[in-house]
């Protein structure tokens, strides 16, 4: 029987791996009998580079981890740095941050949903998702001056205030967002081919999900209603009403449903932030300029945040200088990817594309 086993490489140059992922796959005919993910093709040394300069300089490396959700990466860093340095942040800045990461969560999920549909042979959802993502990008560009890598959050607040024009853009965007997203959702749900290829595919049970340290939409799609915004609130999430979507099946289809409902809930959060946004400073004026913060810090800090992929946080250790002694990233995609063999073995090679796509990995964050 052993001579029937064929070993093939899937990636690292393959569009449906969603990055430079290589999977060594052993096949018995079309059935996967072993699958080992191999990473390291995009190593950036972000952790060590961040230990070689003042705390604010680390943000340019953090921004480029999950580049599809850069603001969520920035948030994990500034919260941990502010805790270590005992920096107070104006209330208005906290609300702005919350609004911005939810907008970025929606943009991240849209790029996933569009490319996931493309992996399944569906061209139309790709264009519809990027149309909606473009609307979010225009808002983020108006506020931050950038479309992908923002460098907008700062130790002590945010770099610039939101403008009346940007708030009006958000209100206009919210007016038809849910309707447009539901139309896209229906394309997936009403596609016989998509449903047949994703229901029951790439299943990962709750016990295995927890064992592998999987977090985020993949965990919630397996039946666990765990969201750090609810379970361990930060910013002002404890003052906002929103639901944590979950499914029980733990398959590719369930992950799609969870992410789409998360986008609805993120829009709901943004709408509430608009109503609650207080007046005041957007940056702690005690510090001259964001990039010139030279606070000497001692101790350690870590604040977990709910990024679009799962739990993201940065563990910082200060040795009394203005440069971090230790900078360690908790990468959700890295942990989620470890569960790939459990999700692939026993399925056919044709199911591999759907399963890997449903994980939504970003390799700037995996290889970091």
Features:
single chain; 368 residues; alpha+beta; Cytochrome-c3 Hydrogenase, chain B; four-stranded antiparallel β-sheet; 15 helices
Detailed description of the structure:
The chain is α+β, with helices and mostly antiparallel strands and 368 residues long. Helix content is 47%, strand content 13%. The strands form three sheets. Strands 6, 7, 8 and 9 form a four-stranded antiparallel sheet that branches. A three-stranded antiparallel sheet has the order 1-2-3. Strands 4-5 form a two-stranded antiparallel ribbon. The two termini are 40 Å apart.
**Based on helices, strands and strand pairing, what is the structural class?**
alpha+beta
Average pLDDT: 93
Helix fraction by DSSP (H/I, runs of at least 4): 40-55%
**Can you tell me the CATH superfamily?**
Cytochrome-c3 Hydrogenase, chain B
The largest β sheet comes out as:
4 strands, antiparallel
What's this entry about, in short?
With 368 residues, the chain is of the alpha+beta class.
List the helices and strands and how they pair.
Layout: E1 5-10, E2 22-28, E3 31-38, H1 46-50, H2 59-62, H3 70-85, H4 91-119, H5 124-144, E4 153-154, E5 157-158, H6 164-189, H7 192-198, H8 206-211, H9 217-220, H10 228-231, H11 252-276, E6 298-301, E7 305-307, E8 310-319, E9 326-330, H12 332-337, H13 340-344, H14 349-359, H15 363-367
Antiparallel strand pairs: 1-2, 2-3, 4-5, 6-8, 7-8, 8-9
Helix pairs in contact: 3-4, 4-5, 4-11, 4-14, 5-6, 6-11, 11-14
């Amino acid at each position: 029987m052993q001579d029937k086993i064929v070993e093939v490489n899937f990636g690292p140059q393959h569009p449906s791996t969603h990055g430079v992922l290589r999977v060594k796959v052993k096949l018995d005919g079309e059935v996967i009998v072993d699958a080992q993910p191999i990473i390291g093709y995009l190593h950036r040394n972000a952790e060590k580079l961040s230990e070689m300069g003042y705390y604010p300089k680390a943000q340019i490396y953090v921004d480029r981890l999950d580049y599809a959700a850069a603001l969520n990466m920035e948030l994990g860093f500034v919260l941990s740095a502010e805790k270590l340095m005992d920096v107070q942040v104006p209330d208005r800045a906290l609300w702005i941050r919350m609004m911005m990461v939810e907008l970025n969560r929606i943009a991240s999920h849209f790029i996933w949903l569009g490319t996931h549909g493309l992996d399944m042979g569906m061209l139309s959802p790709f264009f519809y998702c990027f149309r909606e993502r473009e609307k979010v990008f225009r808002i983020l560009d108006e506020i931050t001056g950038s479309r992908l890598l923002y460098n907008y959050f700062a130790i002590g607040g945010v770099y610039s205030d939101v403008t009346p024009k940007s708030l009006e853009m958000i209100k206009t965007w919210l007016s038809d967002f849910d309707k447009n997203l539901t139309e896209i959702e229906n394309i997936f749900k009403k596609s016989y081919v998509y449903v047949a290829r994703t229901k029951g595919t790439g299943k990962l049970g709750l016990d295995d999900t927890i064992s592998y340290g999987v977090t985020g939409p993949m965990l919630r799609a397996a039946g666990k209603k765990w969201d750090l915004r609810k379970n361990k609130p930060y910013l002002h999430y404890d003052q906002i009403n929103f639901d944590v979507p979950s499914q029980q099946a733990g398959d590719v289809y369930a992950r799609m449903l969870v992410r789409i409902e998360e986008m609805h809930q993120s829009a709901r959060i943004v709408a509430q932030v608009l109503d609650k946004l207080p007046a005041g400073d957007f940056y702690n004026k005690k510090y001259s300029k964001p990039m010139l913060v030279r606070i000497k810090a001692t101790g350690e800090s870590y604040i977990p945040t709910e990024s679009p992929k799962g739990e993201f946080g940065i563990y910082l250790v200060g040795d009394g200088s203005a440069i971090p002694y230790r900078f360690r990233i908790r990468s959700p995609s890295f942990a989620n990817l470890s569960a790939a063999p459990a999700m692939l073995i026993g399925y056919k090679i044709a199911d591999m594309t759907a399963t890997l796509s449903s994980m939504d990995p970003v390799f700037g964050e995996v290889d970091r």
